[in-house]
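Posting this for the archive.
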Amino acid sequence: MFQIDLKSRKAVYDQIVDNFKRLIEKGALNPGEDLPAPRAMAKTLIVNPHTIQKAYLELENQGYFYTEDGQDWAIATDESNKEKMERKDDVSALYGRLHADIQELIARGELREDIGKLIGMGEQAYITLEDVNKNFNGVQALNALKMNVKKGSIYGLVGTNGSGKTTTLKHLAGIYYPDAGTIRVDGLAAYDNAHGKTVGYMQEDLYFLPDYTMKMFHGFFKDKHKKTWNEDRYQEMMALFGLSDTQTVCTFSRGMQKQAGFIFAISAMPDVLLLDETIDGLDPIVRKQALKYIIEDVAEREMTVVLTSHNMRELDGICDTIGIIKAGRMVIERDLGDLRTNVHKIQVAFPPDFLLNNFPYDSLDVLHMEELGSTDLLVVRGKEDEIAKHIQQFAPLVYDHLPMTLEEIFIFETEDEIDD
């Protein structure tokens, strides 16, 4: 239908929304025409299912898409938009009654946590780290680390070398025990396999026993994960990556070793997949194939993924949530969608000498500002429409909303927190 350009400065979410709008406005998609379900579209575009879901909801909000149950989607018609507005009125009335009931429960002294669970707001994370400490020979690797990962999500853990990313994954894999704090998967301890979940872990520096062939490792992993092992997937991926059972793995190039490691990890059909710089180490074609399997398992089985990466651009369209870790401490953990709608880059120009007596930026939450000749370039935190409305009241000669990369957003949004 259309291609997603991961190298574009435009967010994957925005590309999806803009492409669908273009196809509808040009008549390539007709009113009433059925659409693939979000999870099916995610596998087609190799994009996180939650990103597709949010794009569909935005297109419905703008009147381009229509759904009755959130599962079956179609291009909106005039009639379906009329039904949507009627339904919106009904929902507003229901919300008013619900809000009044909640306020009454609070007034009666009911616990807010219990009230949250009743209305679906008390969902707990699938993977949790609470105040985790780890010390290696006097070096504090993890420092009261907190982390929350939802089931069926893809979580990107970002940080410089030595920040604690690999140590965190090894704790989740049950290789390390924390000196203090708790680590849970689905409510149970992460070590000694207390949770009973299948965990696939690929570390950055792979080690394969000398003289072991793919066939030997195949037998080992198949026996280790006998309850979940998917032989058809293993054989399919071996053919896809062009690997042979007779090849000795330690003689592979670094890239081929990562392919082999990924085959073993994903063929075990893990409930939790931990990838340490794995995606960065694959060439573009193999990377796309690997992502295809990851997205399929997230969409179909609600596999939960935690991956580390140095490349922020690679995480756009893949991750739901990003956590930035520094010196073993989580400095920020944020939903990608929320982050993108809250930070904006704008270009503004006013008549000469206008800024000498006027202060159009004073009430804005400006994260960065620089002068480019007669034009001001600003990075502003807030809602896009409210920022635009505020600036437009001063009648600027130029007002443009510019695209931002994920890396730029994090630099400006977290600069103060990371520098602490």
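The mean pLDDT is 86. The two ends are 46 Å apart (CA to CA).
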